[in-house]
Structures are given as C-alpha cells and as structure tokens.
Amino acid sequence: MTTVQDHTEEHDVHAAPPRRRTGLWRLLAPGWLRAIWMTALFGALGVGLVVGLRATAGWRPIIDWEPIITAAFLTAAPLGFLAGLGAFDYWLRWAFGFPTQPEDHSGHGAKRWTDYFRINTDHKVIGIQYVVTTVFFFLAGGMLAMLVRAELARPEADFVDSQTYNELFTAHAALMIFLFVIPAFAGLANYVLPIMIGAPDMAFPRLNALSYWLLPIAGTMMLTSFFFPGFGAGWTNYAPLSVDQPFGNVFFSMAVQWAGASSIMTALNFLVTIITMRAPGMTFWRMPLLVWANFTTSLLVVIATPFIAGSQFFVMFDRVMHTHFFEVVNGGYPLGYQHIFWFYSHPAVYIMMLPGFGIASEVISTMSRKPIFGYRLMALSLVAILILGFSVWAHHMFVAGMAPWLRIPMMITTLLIAVPTGIKVFSWLATTWEGRINFATPMLWAMGFVSMFVIGGLSGIFLGAVPIDIATSDTYFVVAHIHYVLLGGSLFTIFAGFYYWFPKMTGRMYNEMLGKVHFWMTFVAFNATFFPMHIIGVQGQPRRVYTYEDQFSNWNIFISISSFVLGASFIVFVYNMVVSWARGPRAPANPWRANTLEWQVSSPPPTFNFDEIPQVVGNPYEYGVPGAKHAILNGDREAATETATEEVRR
Amino acid sequence: MRAGSLIKVLLVSLVFAALATAVAIFIPWLPEQSSKEAERIDFVFWFVTAICIAIFAVVAAISVYSLFKFRARPDDDSDGPPIHGHTGIEIAWTAIPLVLVVAMIAVSSVVLVRNDRVPDNALRVEVWGQQFAWTFLYPPAGKVPGEDKMACVERDAGRIVDGCKASPNLQLPVDRSTRLYLSARDVIHSFWVPEFRQKQDAVPGITTEITITPTKTGSYRLICTELCGLGHALMRTRAIVTSAADFERWLSSRTTPGGMS
User: Hey, is A256 helix, strand or coil?
Assistant: First the structure.
C-alpha cells in the first residue's frame, strides 16, 4: 500500500504538461491522426503479407479476399488502430530499450469531452467510456430486435427475407451479450470497484485502457458484417451451419476474439486489483458484495473465455484455412463445437448475472436502511455458483445427441444451482423486511430485478428437468426464459447501477420522475412482451423462424406491439441521462446515505479518489448499528489506529 | 417477526397461489397429448409447475407485503433494525429448496429412463434430415440400424440403400412403440412433433435415437427446431398416425426408390 501512496504524492512533481507537437510532427503523436494512417498502414501490410505468401507458395488465385479480409482488415488493421491511438506506446518504448516517459498523470481525469476519445488510464474515465459505448450498442441491438418483431408481427414473411431475418436475430443477441451486458458490468465495476476497496486506481491502468479500446473494434466489426452479408447462424454459431454461412460469419468469429480479449484483460485487472490493492483493514469479509461479485465473475471470465475463443477460431479456420474440425466427411465432429462453446457460454450466463447480484445487494441494503441479511452466506453462494457453473454446460445439449448418460448428472448439477440462487433471492427479501425502504429509481430496478429473476429462475427449473426440456428446447419457451434472465435479470440490475451511481459518475442528479416513468414503462412492456412467449413456446412455436402457423398470430401481434412500447421506454432513459448529465442539479457526495467508500468522497471523486488511503474499520452494511463505521478517511489516522487496536483487543 | 405479519404474508401467498394456478389452468398451455411419452412428460411438467407455483407465491407475497408495509415516509431518515442474519432461517431456506430439487430430479430421471426404453416389438424407422426436407425410411425385416450406422442410408454419399422404403412424411401405427434413428446430411436439424413432445437433433456423422408410442390416430405437425439455414422455417412435414392395419397396407403399397438422395 505504501508504494501506492508514494506514487500519489509524487503526482505533483511530474505534473508538467506533455510536449505539444506541432506541424507534421503531430502525425507522430499518439492520437486519432496517427491512428488513421497506422490503421491504413497495418491493413496494407496485412494485404501484402497474405498476397506475398500466396504468391511465394504458388497458390491460385493469388488474390483471395477471404484470407485477405480476415488477416488484413479484421486482425492487422485493428492492431494498427490501437498502436496509432497510443495503447502500446509505453510498453514498446520499454521493450525496445528507449527511455520510458514517466507517468505524468496528464492522462488522468477528463477535462473536456474530447478527453473521452483518447487513451486514458484513469479508471473513472474508462468506466464512463465503457458505459457510454455499451449504451450505444444496447440501442443498436435493441433496434435490431424491433426489426425482428416487425417481421414476426404477421405470420407470413412480409418484411425482410430469410437471410436478413437470420442476421437480425443473430446480431441482436451477439451485440447484447458481447457488447452490452458483459462490458456494461465491466464498465460500472471499473468506475466504482477501485473506490469501493479504497484504491487510487486499477492495478494495471494501461491494460485497462487497452481493454476498453478493444470494444469499439469488436462492435464495429459486428455492425459492418451486415454488408458482407452478415452472420446468420444464431449467436450460438453452431457448426457445421456456421462454416458455410456468408462471409459475415468471419466478422462474428473475429469480433468475439476482440471482445473476449477485452473481457479477459479486464478480469485479470479486477483480480489483481482486488487481491493486492485493498485499503488497510479491508479484509475479504469486509468487502462490499459488489466486489465479491466481480471477484467471482472475473474468475469465471479468466477460466472460461478462452473456450469461446477456441470454438470461434475452429469455425474460422474451417472456413478460411480449410481445416476440418467440424466437417464430417473429413472426420470432423459437429458436437465437439457445442461442448467447447457451452463450456464458455454457460459460465457466461453467470458472467452476465453475478455482477448484477452485486449491484442488487448494494442498492437493496442501502435503500432499505438495513444490513444485508446473511452477508457471509451471500458471498459464499457466489462462490458456489462459480464452482457449479462449470459443471452444467451440457444442459444446453439435452436433445443435441450427446452421450445419453450425461443427461442425468448434468440435470443434477443444473437444478442444484437453484439452491445458492434461492439463498440470494431469499436474503434480498429478508433484507427489505422491516426496513425503511426508499423507493428511489435504483431501488425500483433492483426489486424489479428480484421479481423478474424469480420468474426466469423458475422457468429455468422447467428447462433443467430433462423431460420438460426435451419438449420445450429450441422453442419460444427458451426465448422467454433467456429474456427473463438476461433482460429482467442483467438489464434491470444494469439500470439499477446506472441510476444508483449516476450522481457519483457525473456529479449531477438524474430526474427522479423520468426515472420512475422509465422503470414502469419497461417493467410492464417487458412482461407483456416476454410472458406470452412461454405459452406459444410450449404450444409449439419454434425459435429462429420468420414465419409461423396462424394459430400463433394473435399472441405474436400482441408481443410485437408490446415490444415496440418496450423499445420506446428507452427513449425516456436516454433523454433523462443526456439532459441530467448536462443540466441536472448538482449531486451531493452521498445522496443515498450509503456506507461504502465510493460515497465518502466527492461526486465525482478527485483524480486519485482519496487524498489519503482510507483505513477500513468495519463492515460495509452496518445500517442501524449505533456508532458503526465502515472506514475512516482524511487524515484521522490517530482515531483509526485507536479503533484498530481496540478491535485487536476485542 | 410478529405472528400478525406472518398470517398476513400467508394470506397474500394464498392469493398469489390462486392467481398463478388460474394462469396454469385457464391458459391452454400444452398441445394435445398424443403419445405415451407425452403423458409422462406432462406429468413432470405439472409436478414442477405445482412446486414452482408454491415458491412463486411465497416469494411474491413476501416482496409485495414488505414493499407496501416497510415503505419509508418521505421525512423518515431513520435506519431499520440491524438484523445481520438468522442461522435457523438460513438453514431452512437452504434445506427446503434442496429437498424440492431432489424430488424433481428423481421424478425427471424416472420419466427419462422410461421414455427411453425400446420394447422388443418396436417398429424401427430411420429419419434423414437435409436442407430443407425430411425423409423417413422403413428398413426391410432383418436390416437393423445400429448405434453408429444407418441401415437405409449410406451417410457419406447420402444414398438410400436398396430394399428400404422411403416417405416424405412420417407414417406410424397407433399404440405401438417406434424407435427413430436420426441422422443428417449437411447441417444439424432437429425432429419435433409437439403433440408427441419428444424432440431429438439429427446430427451429421452420428446416429441419435428416440422412442415414440402414439396413442391417437391423426395428422400432426412435424417441424425442424434447430436453425439449419435459409429454409429452416419451412422444413416441415406431417406425422400421420393410423391403425396398425392401415399402416401395414400403406407400407406394403410403398415402392422402394433406388438411389434417391
């Protein structure tokens, strides 16, 4: 901890402004100008490399666009973009033996809006970059869902053709999962987690900046795939169908690599930060549950994400390099894809849930003015979900043709997850019991999450029981289930987090009335959209079809209209966020009277979060305990030492 | 917790249970039940539904009650009572779900095993999926499909073996078990007849199996439920269940197509 403090104090010594480059020299300075020409240069080098190799090897045709686009435009050009922006400057100077420029912290903090468009090593700036970017991709993914529902409003195929329809629902899921839910949680945690544990920044600020800048690359790839034309094998991208898709499928395979790399780097950063940078006195049993949640999530990400990277590389190699991982005629094995894919993608469900559990715990405890009920069991059930989460992947494959004996063991582990999940739900409810509940917007979202997640969890029990899964697999029942879990679950907690920390992140208050309008509109339209999907699913409407029998048409038109209302509700959200950020009333440091550390500093917090590293002296949720303190800040060292020794004596 | 609030929560639970039961009963959830396997699957469905209604009612009642009862007045800045936990309650809400989960696992396992049985007199039919059509093949006596091979299709070439009878729709005799052997030519497809409930993917390179015992004559939708490309939504045919005599008549009237692919 001392090194961190010294570092903070040195700050002023190095605070000289960076050299300003003028004229043509500006082309060499890290930034967008250099990014533009370096993207072009790296792209050209990639083209040259592929064409050169093919010419040398005597392969015809020499100009084959599939490997060229894959190597040059989906791999080399993005690296050039990152290098141009300056993501690698420090490391490259160090690696080549040039004198490294000592960190002058000029990259910390954002003074103008343009500062959000630079490589910035401040975790608070990166957090905001993440959140704004993910909201953009959320809106894009939502628009795609609106188009899907427009097609499904009537039974006939009357709005888009079959290929476009497949691309729409595939890109919708891919954007929502890889560019909204997962990075939105990473962004919120990026902002608040270091402050919550009393650290001045993340452990690896440069790596943090790099993780963020991989996201716009992945998102751009997924959106531009539509022109090639896009990928339409579902976000699950099952082989061998994915291997003979239009070329856009390679865009998906590569976008997943960039987004996955971003996830892994962020997760490593969180793990090291949580393990090594907790303030004195912040033991594991004193960490806020959001920190616990991100700790377990990061373990899931680090262990599981390489598997989806592998599965997508196999698909891409089968296509671009003509390997035969999944081509039966040449000895490939299609089910191998599903095993590898779900070995990531089931834990991914928890990657998309556990951080939300953390947010819900923070909000519910603070807004109920009561300690979290059963804090240690809450933390331990996160660990139980982490471990069980790795043993259930094949429940996505009950009808897939895998070894039949695998079904019962996978059903047992799957249904067992209901136990730790149930513990969490019951504990949240017990936390509200006899509380003094403040129904501000974050609390509405958090309680909306608990209720919707219960429905999603119960439909999950239906799908976990093998015989019922055999009947309902690949129908709209599954579509209903995933949306109750990922929209009613993940999205609701993300909004709880957005509203809860909005005053901290922007220094301004959002409009409470608009926040409530947004919640109720989303809540009602969400249920009207997705609850009927359970019914048509069980009755026999399969998923991923653009046309269906007339018997389902009444429900479908109802669902489509509800989904448009659901889409419209996010206009209220965007309006509220934009206007409040620009003109909202100034936020106090601690509008929710919360105990955790991020609320003990100003809104927004100072550049290095704390003037002095705080001394943690107690648990984070001691609402209603007379005289209880979570931490001592701002130089009251003597009091801190006294409390600490007193505690030791006790 | 006071006894008064406990009774109130219980009453609210009963209201929610009644509402959920009404949703379960008055909405026509399941399609017609036309096979032995469907009867067993539906039993699991209603067994799980009953448990889920109970859990839903309790959770919904506690949340609604506590949200109305413990709402803070606008000027109330006080904190709630500092309750950190209760070991007894925590053990209870770990143990009770565990018991329910074990019960559901037991019922599901028994049904799964029974639905997967192959009686000795079972009819054997092979199902061949390709973009975007199904072919159903009836092997002659003596040709038995195995775990890794199909009796009627040369899988690599996609050719139908001489002596097998082929049909574009699935014809089945009523009240007799049929074992289906599924495979696919190009990509993964999935066989589903909602009225039979049974579903199974047809995967290139391997043979998968499923048992269906129709209990009612009639013509049912047979649909592909695994995204298989542009024509996925249209990859549909019928499953036609007739009396045993009608089925034999139909089968003997089919000619054997050579070399159909």
Answer: helix
State whether residue B148 sits within 8 Å of chain A by CB: no
Is residue B133 less than 8 Å (CB to CB) from chain A?
A: no
* Binding-face residues of B in 207-226 toward A, CB within 8 A: 208, 221, 223-226
Tens-place pLDDT, residues B177-218: 999 999 999 999 999 999 999 999 999 999 999 999 999 999
Buried b (16+ CB within 10 A) or exposed e, A35-44: beebbeebbe
Is B81's CB within 8 Å of A399's CB?
A: no
Q: At what angle do helices A248-276 and A205-224 cross, to 10 degrees?
A: 160
Does the model's ipTM exceed the 0.90 cut? yes
Within chain B, strands assigned E span: 123-130, 133-138, 153-154, 159-160, 165-167, 170-173, 178-184, 189-192, 199-202, 208-212, 218-224, 236-242
Structure confidence at residue A104 (pLDDT): 59
What are the chain B neighbours of A425 within 8 Å (beta carbons)?
59
**Cβ-based contacts of A405 with chain B (< 8 Å):** none
Whether B259 shows a pLDDT value over 70: the answer reads no
| B111 part of contact set with chain A, CB < 8 Å | yes
Mutate to test the interface with A, among B79, B89, B210 (most CBs of A within 10 A): B79
A462 CA: distance to closest CA in chain B (Å):
7
CA distance B87 to B85: 6
Cα–Cα distance measured from residue B147 to residue B181, given in angstroms and rounded to the nearest whole number: 9
List of residues 6+ apart from A10 with CB closer than 8 A: none
- Name the 3-class secondary structure at A4: helix
Query: What amino acid is encoded at A126 in this protein?
Result: I
Return left, alpha or beta for A110; rule: phi > 0 is left, psi -120 to 50 is alpha, else beta: beta
Please state the rounded mean pLDDT for residues A123-148. 96
- Whether A436 sits inside 8 A of B229 (CB atoms) is no
Q: Is the peptide bond before A326 cis (omega within 30 degrees of 0)?
A: no
A401-419: per-residue pLDDT in tens? 998 899 999 999 999 999 9
**How far does A475 lie from chain B, in Å, by closest CA?**
7
Whether B205 and A333 lie within 8 Å, measured CB to CB: yes
How sure is the predictor about A8, in pLDDT bands with cuts at 50, 70 and 90?
Answer: very low
* DSSP 8-state assignment for residue A491: I
Comparing CA positions, the residue from A537, A554, A539, A360 lying closest to residue A459 is A537
Q: Vertex A515, ends A511 and A521: CA angle to 5°?
A: 145
**How far is CA A180 from each of CA A361, A492, A542, B204, rounded to the nearest angstrom?**
21, 13, 26, 34
- Distance between A107 CA and the closest CA of chain B, angstroms: 41
**Nearest-CA residue of chain B relative to A335?**
B203
Q: What is the pLDDT of residues B110-159, one digit of tens each?
A: 999 999 999 988 999 999 999 999 999 999 877 777 666 788 888 878 78
**How many Cβ atoms are within 10 Å of A361's Cβ, its own excluded?**
29
Residue entry with tokens 């070991």: B87
% helix / strand / coil in chain A, to the nearest 5? 70, 0, 30
Amino acid, res. B154? E
Q: How far apart are CA B176 and CA B251, in angstroms?
A: 15
Residue A73 Cα to chain centre, angstroms: 25
Minimal C-alpha gap between B124 and chain A (Å): 18
CB A617 within 8 A of CB A629: yes
